[in-house]
Design goal:
- It is built from eleven helices and ten strands.
- The chain has 385 residues and is an alpha+beta fold.
- Strands 1-4-5-8 form a four-stranded mixed beta sheet.
- A hairpin with a 2-residue loop joins β2 and β3.
Length: 385
């Protein structure tokens, strides 16, 4: 086992840490308050390769692996989880779906554009009726000659306002259940495709989240990704990779909350001494740091398995479950340590407290992760009987 980062990985980590400190930190609260995405960051992130992290250079990507990917998402999220979420959804969901299951023409047309950061990517599975029960989605795609006609609605979609392309899961055969779902690329500006106003969220308010509407939206037949009826299967595989990035997001925001808390305990005085001297505070810091390290190792393990081409579904769900619930616990302890100051927006832990909840909901709730984990454990045990 190797626990040491390579020199190249350390260099990437430091580069992103500096970028987050210089470009993101000064505007965090301004954009959070305005629930506005800092659009000016897109070309800057593209220049650093952050919008094509896991894609080969031949498609305009940075040619890095999942280990580098989680380091990047973690560093961004330690300063602003909104930006970590933006980068994660772009890389592991929208762009990765086209790269993994698209044909060469689709890779050349869409992945190259997205990996170079000419726009963000969006990925649309969730609907008002169907979150965890994704197989029950109601958006339809009907074949009409050399076109597909889409009708339906998607919700809680990340990045659509700043995306030229969105991957959409739609039902192509209502009689086949999950095997009747297919995936398509829809281009922004296509007649019949509209994007709703940004949603007013509890946290990660500077990330772009909106509803999508399809009304007799006609797209070319060649925009089908893979084979008809394989969309649900594709989506489940993409979500497994996405869970690694959500775990990294949660490790980052937990670390950010912890670092601000540690600094505060070394500055704040009560009863004639620094509060870091009190045993109750020390125990809280110890719990925070230990659990963050555990979540980090789970996340790194999942990333390593992905880079090795091994099955990482179980590891990704475990990392996502633990890291997301940890982020909520750490943010809560951070606010508690700050006391009254933790409850006002002048101090950063208030924002981490609001942001942390997204991890236990997005890309598969904690309950869904427990189902995935349990089913895989039972499957493995049954095979060994």
């Amino acid at each position: 086992m190797q626990f040491e980062l390579t020199e190249e990985q350390k260099s990437i980590q430091e580069m992103v840490r500096e970028f987050a400190r210089e470009e993101i930190a000064p505007i965090v609260m301004e954009y959070d308050e305005a629930k506005r995405f800092p659009e000016q960051l897109i070309p800057k992130m593209a220049e650093l390769g952050l919008l094509g992290i896991i894609f080969p250079e031949e498609y305009g990507g940075a040619g890095m692996g999942y280990m580098e990917y989680v380091l990047i998402v973690e560093e961004l999220s330690a300063v602003d989880p909104s930006i970590g979420l933006t980068v994660a959804a772009h890389n592991s969901l929208g762009t990765n779906h086209i790269y993994t299951f698209g044909n060469e023409a689709q890779r050349q047309k869409y992945v190259t554009h997205l990996a170079q950061g000419k726009s963000l990517a969006a990925w649309a599975l969730t609907e008002p009726c169907c979150g965890s029960d994704a197989a029950a989605l109601k958006t339809t795609a009907r074949r009409d000659g050399d076109r597909w006609i889409l009708n339906g609605q998607k919700t809680f979609i990340t990045n659509p306002t700043y995306s030229d392309y969105v991957v959409v899961m739609a039902r192509t055969d209502p009689e086949k259940g999950k095997k009747g779902i297919s995936a398509f690329v829809v281009e922004n500006g296509t007649p019949g495709y509209t994007i709703g106003n940004p949603m007013n969220k509890l946290g990660t308010r500077a990330s772009d989240t909106a509803e999508l509407f399809f009304e007799d939206c006609a797209i070319p037949a060649e925009n089908l990704i893979g084979k008809e009826g394989e969309g649900y299967k594709q989506a489940m595989q993409i979500l497994s990779g996405g869970r690694i990035s959500i775990a990294a997001l949660c490790v980052g925001m937990a670390r950010g909350a912890y670092e601000h808390t540690l600094k505060y305990t070394l500055e704040r005085e009560a009863f004639g001494q620094k509060i870091a001297n009190f045993q109750a505070i020390q125990f809280r810091l110890a719990d925070m740091a230990t659990e963050i390290e555990a979540a980090k190792l789970l996340t790194y393990q999942a990333a390593w398995l992905a880079d090795q081409g091994k099955n990482y579904s179980l590891a990704a769900s475990m990392a996502k479950l633990y890291a997301s619930e940890l982020a909520v616990r750490v943010a809560d302890m951070a606010v508690q340590t700050f006391g009254g100051y933790g409850y006002i927006k002048e101090y950063p832990v208030e924002k981490f407290y609001r942001d942390s909840k997204i991890g236990t909901i997005g890309e598969g709730t904690s309950d869904i992760q427990r189902l995935v984990i349990a089913r895989e454990l039972i499957k493995q045990a049954s095979q060994n009987l």
